[in-house]
Design a protein that fits this description.
Layout (H helix, E strand, L loop, with lengths): L7 H18 L8 H12 L10 H16 L8 H12 L10 H6 L6 H11 L6 E4 L16 E5 L3 H10 L4 E3 L16 E2 L17 H12 L3
Parallel strand pairs: 1-2, 1-4, 2-3
């Protein structure tokens, strides 16, 4: 569902409220029923998806945010292999994302698998002195694992997802620039960039086979030299 910019904060607040309820259900070891996410969204919006105030795609975003909240209290194994296995096991408990919206395809908002998101930050070897930038953050699955950094800067062009990021990371700077030009907007040059960029569309939603290249080039240009 495409949300007008002035309505984005309210939509983000409702999705975050639903995500908090979903996160509570993820504290146990049972699979998350699709119906529970629907109930959480209905409670947060005060109406069902049939009324047109939210979509099934919105509920999947709330599930992803709820997952991030649940991960923050999860005890992880000590070895990388153990962590990957635990995250993969956790992800199998989540409902399969069977719905793709036109907006999602246009903006290339596709979820990063949990284990892959952790591996990105692990392989980036983020340290206490690093300044980390996630230029196309979505709802912050990669940024979730950058908590060791001295500072984290998050950018997301979609206004609702940017609003969700502000709920998830209240002490972190969240901007909403076109990530393909992020090097023109960073106030503090990062030492590490973590990203899962759009690969097939530009910021206007048009097909662009060089979209990923533009995002990578801008990220490299933003890095400290």
């Amino acid at each position: 569902m495409i949300i007008e910019t002035d309505q984005a904060p309210a939509a983000a607040a409702r999705q975050y409220a639903a995500a908090c309820q979903i996160a509570k259900s993820l504290q146990n070891d049972a699979p998350l029923p699709r119906s529970l996410a629907t109930e959480a969204m209905t409670a947060a919006y005060g109406s069902s998806s049939a009324d047109g105030t939210w979509t099934q795609r919105d509920s999947f975003v709330a599930i992803e945010v709820g997952t991030i909240l649940a991960l923050r209290s999860m005890m992880l194994p000590e070895t990388p292999t153990g962590i990957v296995e635990k995250l993969e096991e956790f992800e199998r408990r989540l409902p399969t994302q069977t719905v793709r919206s036109e907006e999602q395809i246009s903006t290339q908002h596709f979820s990063t698998p949990l284990a892959l998101a952790w591996l990105v930050s692990h392989l980036a070897a983020i340290g206490d002195d690093d300044i980390v930038l996630e230029p196309s953050a979505g709802v912050g699955m990669l940024a979730t694992w950058a908590d060791r950094a001295k500072a984290v800067c998050i950018n997301e062009i979609d206004p609702v997802r940017a609003g969700l990021l502000r709920h998830l990371f209240p002490g972190i700077s969240v901007t909403s620039f076109n990530a393909a030009q992020i090097n023109q907007h960073v106030s503090v040059a990062p030492t590490v960039v973590i990203m899962n960029p759009p690969f097939a569309r530009n910021a206007a939603g048009a097909v662009d086979p060089f979209a990923a290249h533009r995002h990578f080039a801008a990220a490299l240009a933003a890095l400290q030299t």
